[in-house]
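REVIEWER CHECKLIST
Item 1: Sequence provided? yes
Item 2: Single chain? yes
Item 3: Sequence as submitted:
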Amino acid sequence: MTSDYLDSVKKQLDYYKMLGEKTFAQLPDDKLFWQYNQESNSIATIVKHLWGNMLSRWTDFLTSDGEKEWRNREAEFDNDIGTRQEVLDKWNSGWDCLFSALNSLTEDDLQKVIYIRNQGYTVTEAINRQFAHYAYHIGQIVFLGKMICDDNWRSLSIPKGKSGELNAEKFSKPKHI
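Item 4: Structure as written out by the authors:
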């Protein structure tokens, strides 16, 4: 495994972070707190959960269990965030913690074993585990954004009906890395 893996993971995580941020930008402040029903989570609640998870998993990543004693996972699902700024502060705090940990890793760290809830994972496995978890929840954020915006949603990828146009443009150019 080379440092290409770490670069790739950081690039992909940046992409998912951007998807969340472009979703937030399309929503009025109050819609960050909208819930489909009492059993579902608002975007603010999902952000709060991601924040709690990121701080727990990435603080002292190589030296302490990823499920910190100070984490209160159940409270992450309390709907007690009140402003867009609070949502964004938690969002940025979690991502800052994650990227700080990733940026400190070396190629030699990738095969080390770390623990999450007393279960051992190689650093590579732990990164993959968290990447999948974050992509899952950011997909929920985007889906909620699409539901809330309805016909006013601006696509974050290839808009419906535009695949052929995009492919024609891409395939008209030489292959590149």
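Item 5: Key structural point noted by reviewer: The helical segments are 3-26, 43-58, 84-104, 123-149, 163-171.
Item 6: Recommendation: ____
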